[in-house]
Amino acid sequence: MKTRFPMRVPTRFIVVAALAAMLLVAAACSGSDNSGGDTSVEGLPPEFQRLSEVWELMKQEHIDAEGLDPQVIADGAIRGMVSALDDPYAAFLDQEQYSLESQDILGFFGGIGAEVGIREGVITILAPMPDTPAEAAGVKPGDVILEVDGESIQGLNLLAVVRLIRGDQGTTVTLLLRHLRDTEPVSIEIEREIIQLESVHLLMQVGRIGHLRISSFTGTTGDELKDAIERFERSQGVGLVVDLRNNPGGLVSSVVEVTSQFIDDGLVLYQVDANGNRDDWGVQSGGKALDIPMVVLVNEFSASASEVFSGAIIDHERATIIGTTTFGKGSVNQLWPLDGGSGILFTTARWFTPNGLLIEGEGITPDIVLDPLEDDEDDDIHLEQAIEILKEEISRGG
Predict the structure, then answer these.
(1) Tell me, what DSSP letter sits at residue 184?
(2) How far is CA 235 from the centre of its chain?
(3) Which residue among the candidates 52, 304, 331, 342 is catalytic per the annotation?
(4) In terms of Cα–Cα distance, which of 242, 252, 190 is closest to 215?
């Protein structure tokens, strides 16, 4: 899932993001006289003067000059600025898109129940959420999205594709997908539902081993985890397999809270912003699972906050990590509100594990690397291996 921080309105970013609108209307405010008057805005580089010149030319010479809408043109200019960043997570959101994107924070939205991300430059399904229309329809981790409702998504950014997939409850959307390791695409029709973001599931296995699956890191994951730990203890559990496979991530505050249940002190992660400023995210006191034996299970679609958790567990030598190298998404993508209800999203910082490993583009390499599962394997071999490793560690500890 996309990483979020609390909403705030920093003036310096709003000014930069809205400068196109300011410059494009500057000439209009001074009339249509193209006499070379100074329309520059203090603090902006002189190169942006060309935007004002373009606006003047369009107003004077375009065949439909009378119908030009400054708001529409300004939005287009901002989109161009964002695309020039060479930031795969950057996007301009109009009012409707910003409203849809903000719904995740409330814990529900209308859609199919699948997290999408960018993998090797293409828009990819990270994971269908458990018990959702996407999972029931056969959507799989690693599916590449080719079309939505018969329209190619080539050239669209991530949020634009998300907007196409989401919609009102009861409506349908058809996705043309190419499954991982397949060559021929498949078309899947899915009926949208209201998606509830429940993120923690505990199933006790034979031998009092708990299979603790964390499917995302939301605002409620910390409380859900505490409830799961209490159920585990009431069941007299002896060890946990923490399963982060296909977990696309979520809130940094959530992963800090969750990691703090298993680690007693030190860092969970640190981040470095564009100016080289470092922010440390420390362990919160009062963890409920500090001494529970555990193994952590990851795969190539464990991303973002999942990688933060895994990196902290490895660096603190808290547990064995097994699986495949993770996704490699360790950047902070901030969503900023703009005037008029629109918004802008771009990368503001990158994450590092406590020992200084860069997550973005690298991922987390497990202690024990397993071969990726084939799609037609019915038995969960990796989970079985994790349980066996955990049992061996418990036996040696006893």
Answers:
(1) S
(2) 34
(3) 304
(4) 242
Point out which residues pair with 279 in neighbouring strands.
271
Task: Name the amino acid, one letter, at 275.
Answer: N
Check pLDDT > 80 for residue 63: yes
Number of other residues whose CB lies within 10 A of the CB of residue 397: 8
- Encoding tokens for residue 18? 């809205």
Mean per-residue pLDDT, 158-166:
83
* CATH superfamily of domain region 108-196: PDZ domain (2.30.42.10)
CB atoms within 10 A of CB 12: 8
Which CATH number applies to 200-392: 3.60.9.10, 3.90.226.10, 3.40.50.10320, 2.120.10.30?
A: 3.90.226.10
Give the whole-angstrom CA distance, residue 144 versus residue 40. 44
Clarify whether 391 is annotated catalytic.
Answer: no
CA distance 332 to 336: 12
Exposed (0-12), middle (13-18) or buried (19+): which is 147, by Cβ within 10 Å? middle
Distance CA 129, CA 383 (A): 18
Question: From the candidates 104, 310, 329, 331, which is the catalytic residue?
Answer: 329
pTM to 2 decimal places? 0.71
Q: Active-site residue 2, yes or no?
A: no
Bridge pairing between strands 186-191 and 172-178: antiparallel
Q: How many Cα atoms occupy the beta-carbon half-sphere of 9 within 13 Å?
A: 9
Any idea what DSSP says for residue 225? H
272 φ/ψ angles, rounded to the nearest 5 degrees: -125, 130
Closest CA to 319 of 384, 224, 240: 240
Domain regions of the chain by residue span: 11-30+41-88, 108-196, 200-392
- 304 catalytic? Reply is yes
Least confident of 148-162, 303-317, 379-393: 148-162
Q: How confident is the model at residue 25 (pLDDT cuts 50, 70, 90)?
A: very low
Please check the confidence at residue 128 and state whether its pLDDT lies above 90.
no
Cα 63 to Cα 54: distance, rounded to the nearest angstrom: 14
Is 107 in contact with 197 (CB distance < 8 Å)? yes
DSSP letters spanning 31-87:
-S--S------TTS-GGGHHHHHHHHHHHHH-TTGGG--HHHHHHHHHHHHHHTT--
State the first-to-last Cα distance of the chain, in angstroms, to the nearest integer: 39
- Catalytic one of 52, 315, 331, 342: 315
